[in-house]
Structure formats: structure tokens, C-alpha cells
Amino acid sequence: MSAMSPPAEVPSMLPVAVDAMGGDRAPAEIVRGARQAAEELGIPVLLVGDPERMGDTGDLPVRPATEVIAMDEDPAQSVRRKKDSSLVRAAEAVRDGQASAMVSAGNTGAAMASALFRMGRLPGVARPAIATPIPVPGATPTVLLDAGANAECSATWLVQFAQMGSAFSRERYGLAEPRVGLLSIGEEETKGNSLVKETHALLAAGAAGPAVHFIGNVEGRDVMSDAVDVVVTDGFTGNVTLKALEGGLRFMVAAVLAALTGSPEVEAASAVILPALAPLAAELDPDTYGGAMLLGVDGVCIISHGSSSARAIVNAVRAARDAVEHDLVGQLRDAVTRIDQLG
Amino acid sequence: MSAMSPPAEVPSMLPVAVDAMGGDRAPAEIVRGARQAAEELGIPVLLVGDPERMGDTGDLPVRPATEVIAMDEDPAQSVRRKKDSSLVRAAEAVRDGQASAMVSAGNTGAAMASALFRMGRLPGVARPAIATPIPVPGATPTVLLDAGANAECSATWLVQFAQMGSAFSRERYGLAEPRVGLLSIGEEETKGNSLVKETHALLAAGAAGPAVHFIGNVEGRDVMSDAVDVVVTDGFTGNVTLKALEGGLRFMVAAVLAALTGSPEVEAASAVILPALAPLAAELDPDTYGGAMLLGVDGVCIISHGSSSARAIVNAVRAARDAVEHDLVGQLRDAVTRIDQLG
Lengths: 343, 343
What we know:
The structure is a homodimer.
Chain A: E1 16-19, H1 28-41, E2 45-49, E3 62-64, H2 75-81, H3 86-95, E4 101-104, H4 108-119, E5 129-134, E6 142-145, H5 155-173, E7 179-183, H6 194-204, E8 213-218, E9 230-232, H7 235-259, H8 264-284, E10 292-295, E11 300-303, H9 310-325, H10 328-335
Parallel strand pairs in A: 1-2, 1-4, 2-3, 4-11, 6-9, 7-8, 7-9
Antiparallel strand pairs in A: 5-6, 5-10, 10-11
Helix pairs in contact in A: 1-9, 2-4, 3-4, 5-6, 5-10
């Protein structure tokens, strides 16, 4: 089923569990976003966190959790120790059938570890990967994966990332045949490091199966373009690329705004210009995208960025709902080939 | 000697050898840029290429070379086979004491191979690296290396890149103590892939020596910022990062310009705004930076980007002249520790 077709009937959807304590602006902005999602979109939400610190939660149900995993804590260690943390309890709510999905703007590594330890992996998946949508104004976002879950990868993992990324792009953006590219330093198959060359050979030989439309190597400049729909890479390169783009765009926006305050004449003209740029700014705003999704775990886990506003949480809850309604996890389960059957 | 101090006396500087046949716009734009550099900056230039195809070379001396290495040819193979190519002859001119430096906008891999095979490596250098200045409007450029010479690297090579990048930043931008960062996916020393962790341990233990001011790991978002002066990474990650930034900025500029043609009112305001943005655009234009430098070979080799205009060539020739006058190669020779003495 593609995102273009009507969603499956979910007469009484389980709530989306929102980690109220995760993120730089938690809990106030997170709770505000959760309430907006429930009120404006009619999506059932379960808040997970410390009731004494959450403020006014309105009509939302609360799953109490006394502990909080800080943004800079060691992921695996904190998840093991803080069994009553909001992150761990949110993942447990999905595992135990009390929630259909989890959303967190907290410690990314800990969110991954919580989802992995509590929900478990999908059958055959070697490693979950973070799929991050990169905005491409005027076109569907490019899905970059792995954006940081695995600093070191093998070629067969990357083949699975191609399978999962392709299914994700198909379901989330309604693309019939997403173009899957392998991130490298030249288009020729001889270009790249040994991991990329090995992965290229597997993908070119069809190891990912007929559902994956492999278009070959792509370069850094293609990530933020309409030349490719899914960019496959290891989590080190993916994270560096993502953050370089974020930093470059933020820098550029700041430099443009600084240049527009030079003189009264320029400032007057800016007042006319800036509204015309607003749609572009909205398209580039990470809050628009509802966060990244952890692909390969047995449940929906949406990871929103650390500085998430209420609006980012609304969009993350919406993305979680869409993933549940389209049975994205089921699609991913079907998309993945077991490692020992690859290549 | 720093770039702030007066240059060494070079009473009769040897000419800068310019590969007239390399680049998407060769030979016309290249010859035009070479002539401008000679006429406007008084820098002696030697054109290398096919006299029959170069057009009007003015008063410039020409070193004839009958062959041309195309942009997409295999680097090592083409350099071995095309012994009378403009690229190989330019590198030979430096080796043979007929030129003080070489400049090419041609096939980057072939330029590297020509320089490496003809000039040789500096003593103790394991691998040359491409050092690319990343524009940071309002601050000195960040030097990114390796930007693509070595797809696979060892930790000791990266330590040498830190030494060479630091010396380059000091000499070219006059920074007394350039801040050297290691590109990773988190600031903590435990973050990154195994190459980065091993390199971090070496640099933190002072393996690069007292001349290198190591500030720890930096992230993708720091590359285009004033948080760091030299970013050390392997050539795969460096090339992907560089091209992602280039692509993101180009995309952003195109999207902004498209948004500014929406209505007559907006277009009128744009006419006021665009001149205010011109200095920023110039700072971000790669033609401004005179190209990348291949560090670690026994001679000055400046690699300008493939789409170089005459202006890019003028700036590349200027960068070559500065490198010669400040004896940058001598500084690099002194900066490098032999691999077997590292760590």
C-alpha cells in the first residue's frame, strides 16, 4: 500500500507515546505539542514522564515515569540503569501494546537503545538505522540513512539500509519507485572506500532485490537535490553530512539576514522580501519534517531533534500516526532480506 | 615565518606553470586568467599546453605539450600513458626548476598523480592530502583536509594531515595558533568510528607535536563556522562533506533567487537587496579562494575546481605565488614527523 492510497482503517488507534521529558525545551514545549496534536489532529496521545514536572497536561492520559535521561548521558548505560525513565517507559508502552508508536526529542542514542532493547529488532535486521528526511524545496525530501546509529557498518548492513530506506520513501512519500543512491566520492563504481566499493558490487548485482531501484553512486552535492530519493551510507558519513548541511544552511541564513540590516533602504526592501522567503524557510525548517525514524526495530520510533518546538512535536506525532496507519513496520519487515541470504 | 611578516625576497621568481588545457572551460578561460595574472599582478606565468589550441597567449611563454588528459580519465593510467600531456609537463616544469609552482583546473586525480610522480613526496610524508579552504564569511576560511586524495586513511596519516594543515593555515592565513579539530559525530573522545578514535588518542597524546593546537573532535556543523581553523578527516568523509556543503549552498542560492521573482513588488525590492548580498556571494564563491593545495609533495601544486573562470585562475596563480614566497613547502617539510616516530 502506498501513501497515496487511503490509509487502513484504524477504528480505535492506540495512542502515540510522547516522551515528555526529552529535549532541550522539555517538558513545556513537548507537552504543548502533544496537546496540540491531540486537539488539532485528533490523534490520541499518551504522555510519558514525571507528573509533578509536566505542568498542565489537559485531558491527556499520563504514564508516570520518575527518571529522566539527560541529553549527554551515555546511551546504553543510562537505558540500563534508568529503568523508570520516560524514554524507557515510552518504548515499553509500545512493546506492551499500550501505545502504537513512540516519539522523543531526547538523547538520540538513548532513544535508539530504548527502542532496540524494549521493542527488539525486526526479523533478519542486522542493525537499525536512522532515516532522516533532508528537505528539497519543490520536491520530496531525500531520505538519508544511516544518519548516525552505526558509526561503523558492513556492506550487507548497507544493503539492508537500501531495502528499508526504499520502503520508507515509498510509504512515507508515495513514490512508486524511489531512486536509491550510494553515497560516494564519484559516480564510477571504482570510486570510494572499500566499504562503498563492496556495497556497490552487491547492490549492482541486485542483492537488495527487485523492489530496490539502485541508481549507482551519488555524491555529496546530490543529497540536497532532486537527483536521488534515498541516500545510503554508513552512520559516520551520514551524520557528518547531515550536520554539515544543517550548519551550512544555518550559517547562510544568518549571513543573509545580517546582510539585510545594512541600511534603512535595504531594511525597507527586506520587509517586502522576507514574506516571499517564508515558504522556503518553512520548507527548510527541521520542525516541518516530524523528525527521523529508527528503521529496523519492531515498532514505530520517531526521533525528533533536540531543540524541538511544540510544532516539531505535532509533526512528529503526525509522522508516527502515518507510519502506524500505513503499517510501515510491516512493510519494513517484508522489505528486508536476511544477511546470510545477501550477496 | 607567518603570512603576517613580509615575504622572503624573491628577486626573480620562477614562473607559475599553468595547465592551459585543464578544466571545463579550457583553454580559453584558463589562458585569459593566466594573462590577467601576469598583467595585473605582475606574476610571471608559463603556459603549458598545445600551442595550436590555446588561441592568443599574448606575451606569455609557452611550454608545448601535445596531449590532454580529459576530466574523466583514470588518473594513474592517464598520467603514465600521456607523458606529453599539459598536466604532466606542468609538473615536470616544477621538478626541473623551470617553474616555481603548478596550477591546474583539470582532472583532480591526474593533477595529484602528476605532482606525486614528477615532484615526489616530501621526506617522511606517507600520503599527500588535498587542503581545501571552506569560506566562512567574516572570518578566515576553515581548511578541510583531506578533501579527497585518499579514500582510505590510517590514523598516522591523519596526524600528518593535522601537522600539514596547521602549517598551511598558519602560513596562508597568518593565524598564530590555528585550532585543529578532528571531524567526528560527537565531541566526546568516545564518539566516532575506529579510525577517528585511534586518531583522537594520538592527537590528544601530543603525537603531532607542540606546533599543533588540537582542540578535540568537531562535528559537521562546525566546518562552516568560526569554531575551528583546520578540520582533519579522511579523504572520503572530507570529499563528501565538501560536496554536500557546495551542493547545499548552491541549492539554497537558487531557491532564494527563485523566491525573489514572485511578483513585481518583490522583484523591485530584490533590486535593492541583491547588491547588499553581493559581498556575501563573493565570499562564498569558490572562484575567490584560488583552489585547493596538494600538501605533502615536493613543490607547490594548486588544484582549481573544474569549472574555473579566468578569475579563479588569477586567484589560483596568486595563491601559488604566495605559497612560493612564503616557502610553504619548506614549512610543510619542517612540520611533518616521520610515521615511524608517531605515537
